[in-house]
Amino acid sequence: MKSYTRRLQLTGGSTYILSLPSKWIKENSLGKGSEVTVEQKGKDLVIAVPGTSRREKSKTLFLREQDIDSEDLLRVLTSIYISDFHTLTISSNKYISQETRDLVRKFSRFIMGVEIFEETSRSIVLQNVLDSSTFPLSYALRRMSLNVETMIEDTRTALMEHSTSLMENVISRDDEVDRYQLYVYREVRSRASDDVNAVYYLIFSRILERIADHSVNICRMWISRSDQESSSPVDLINFIDIVREMYNEASEAFYSEKLDMINQIIGKKGMIRATKEEIIKKFGASPLSYLIISCAEEALRIGLYATDIAELALDKIIGSTEEFSI
After folding, report:
1. Number of domains in the chain
2. Which residue has the higher pLDDT, 134 or 162?
3. For the CA atoms of 184, 188, 191, 197, what is the dihedral angle to 10 degrees?
């Protein structure tokens, strides 16, 4: 990529003028009176010829074997998605098995914005139909964090109401969180320079995915318990309430950049660790001790990840502020 250095000129007292390289003008058949587009991306301005667009990215995946391991195929397809493509052609010298076709369909339903465009006996063509300009990183992350918030809340409600169906619903919604995280991965990799906060969004998405996993773990463990008639675990529910509030506060601090909230959240690390120890002491001799203590450990991890979000918010605030006070 060529780089040019130009000096700004001031005219009329308030208008700044920038000269463009004559070679670039000739290469694009421009001249006096020609129009160019100026697009702001973060702190940068991109000058382009009107009508030009991002080059289509076409990729091809060759299947050498008819029977391919499903995990291997899903892993490769996911990596290709993160690397970004407009069109992906999956082809084989022999006919593609029905098992492989079903797996590709499962992938296209799971991944955000990817659809099967064309099929033959020896090929499957996938297209990325989602225009990322209408679904920016910040919006995807807010949707993702809201999903995680409701998963924690519903985990608490399911324990309180002995609702196995709600626990199963929480478990199923983990796929939606994973979809958003892969989308964030792809967008950060493809367009990190467009948004100064992209690296913070990527780290935040990873934390959100882990918090969702801990909510799922609580639900799975409680569904599999042997004593289906046990009473509501009040101490565990109260603990989940505490870490849920920490998560909500940390997310608010990340989005609103409220510096005064951050230290309060981080300062709760000792408190939630002590709360978990109290639960261990109380239920150590209970028939449900292993289950309660294991779930309390999962809840503790949610609280600790909330403090990680608060620390990330602090990094984000300091990184974008030249002068601040504490």
Report:
1. 3
2. 162
3. 100
Report the range out of 103-112, 132-141, 301-310 with the highest average pLDDT: 301-310
pLDDT at 10 over 80: no
**Distances 26 to 20, 22, 289 between C-alpha atoms, Å:** 11, 6, 77
Q: Write down the residue that tokens 């000739």 correspond to.
A: 26
Is residue 269 located within the same domain as residue 293? yes
Query: Which residue range is the domain that position 24 belongs to?
Result: 9-48
Do 172 and 310 lie in one domain? The reply is yes
Going by pLDDT thresholds of 50, 70 and 90, the confidence category of residue 13 is: low
CA dihedral for 278, 284, 289, 290, sign (positive or negative) = positive
| CATH code where residue 123 lies | 3.30.110
Whether 29 has a pLDDT exceeding 90, the answer reads no
Scanning the structure block, which residue is given the tokens 């033959």? 120
Are residues 247 and 160 both part of a single domain? yes
Element (H, E) at 209: helix 198-223
Domain identity same for 298 and 149 = yes
Dmax (CA) of the chain:
86
Residue 13 lies in a domain: yes
Considering Cα of 260, then 262, then 266, then 271, what sign does the dihedral take?
positive
Amino acid at 234: V
